[in-house]
Specification:
Its EC number is 3.1.21.2. It contains 5 helices and 6 strands. It has about 140 residues and is of the alpha/beta class. The strands form 2 sheets. Strands 1-2-3-6 form a 4-stranded parallel beta sheet. It has a two-stranded antiparallel sheet with strand order 4-5. Strand 1, helix 1 and strand 2 form a beta-alpha-beta unit.
C-alpha cells in the first residue's frame, strides 16, 4: 500500500511526516508499505518548498521522520493555495505559490532517481511542455 501525504483539509490527518511515520509503524510487514509525496499537499501542509534551502530542510526532515527507503512516488504540482493553508488546490508548474525551484531541485537530487513522478497539474494543454521542462532539468 502506498500512502499519500494530504494537505490537511478539515480534520484530515496525513499532512505531517509524523502522521505518515505513525501509519507505517502500525504496519507489521514494512515491505508492503510506502509513501507518495505530493508537492502541493506538502506546501499546503506546512512544508516550505520555495527555495533550495527549504527543500533541503524539508527532505532532511522527511528522511529523519519517515525515511527515503519508504518513498515510492511523487506527485508534482504547484499550489494555488497559500503556504500552510491546509487547502488542496493544484496549479501548473511555476504558476502557483511554490514556483519552479523545487521541481528543478527534485530533478537534480540523486535520491529521487528511479522514483516515479506523476504530473498532477491543471492544464492538459501544457503537460507536454511541463514534462519537457522537467526532463531538461535533470542533471
Amino acid at each position: 500500500a502506498v500512502i499519500e501525504n494530504t494537505a490537511g483539509q478539515g480534520s484530515n490527518l496525513g499532512f505531517r511526516f509524523e502522521h505518515l511515520a505513525a501509519i507505517i509503524d502500525g504496519v507489521e510487514d514494512k515491505s508492503r508499505v510506502g509513501v507518495c509525496i505530493d508537492t502541493c499537499h506538502a506546501f499546503a501542509g506546512g512544508y516550505d518548498l520555495r527555495t533550495e534551502e527549504e527543500c533541503v530542510k524539508t527532505f532532511a526532515e522527511f528522511e529523519r521522520i519517515v525515511g527515503f527507503r519508504y518513498l515510492r512516488g511523487m506527485h508534482l504540482n504547484d499550489a494555488k493555495s497559500e503556504f500552510n493553508s491546509r487547502v488542496d488546490r493544484h496549479h501548473s508548474l511555476g504558476e502557483g505559490n511554490i514556483g519552479k525551484t523545487v521541481f528543478s531541485w527534485l530533478m537534480k537530487d540523486a535520491r529521487f532517481d528511479g522514483i516515479p513522478m506523476i504530473l498532477e497539474t491543471i492544464d492538459p494543454e501544457i503537460w507536454k511542455d511541463e514534462i519537457a521542462w522537467l526532463k531538461s532539468e535533470q542533471k
